[in-house]
Amino acid sequence: MNKEEMNPSYLILDFDNTIIRGETMDELARISLSNSPEKDKIISEIEQITALGMAGEMPFDESLSKRIKLLKAHKTHVGLLISTLKKRIDTSIINNTEFFKRHRRKIYIISGGFTSVINRVLEDMPFNENQIYGNELMFDDGGWITRVNKENFLSKKNGKSALLNSLKLSGAIATIGDGFSDAEMKLSGEADMFFAYTGHILRESVLHHSDFTVSSFDEIIQLLSEWD
Ligand SMILES: [Mg+2]
Hints:
alpha/beta
């Protein structure tokens, strides 16, 4: 690893199981299906699809549309989802708020989750809203979530790499996340290094693609000694 790579110009952060503990879709399912007699069965099905996607065993676009069909979520569920996720922000991010404030222009969030949800969950945190990228939820006339906007890069296979490419950032880029889609940005050559984040979940199939395995943002900040 050369010095430039140890001193990246940009950090790309994942959201689910990185910035927050848990997966947005799994949490939304717990809320939207809370009164369903088939709740446990459908939630475990959704969790399995999430895990397959994150391990790289199911293409992301397929895993996303399968889960949205199973969710049966309404826009009234989204408010509860946001308040649930706000309580799940990684404590090592909260404890390093000053670092994130200082470096906010160099930090992007690229997530397969939903921009409207992420913006609200992080509204009191030092991230720039115009540097947060996620999927766009689409509702029908009755307010039910039916799909995501398919024009968005992030709804597609290897979408994080395509989105990152579209940002045209110059300089070395480090990605941080728990899932295969985060490793994929390095594997596709769009990013220079990948930190596997194990603070919330450890996915063996992702670890072997990583330059570093880190379990908290304290460890990441130590590795980025050149940033201060
Ligand atoms: Mg993740």
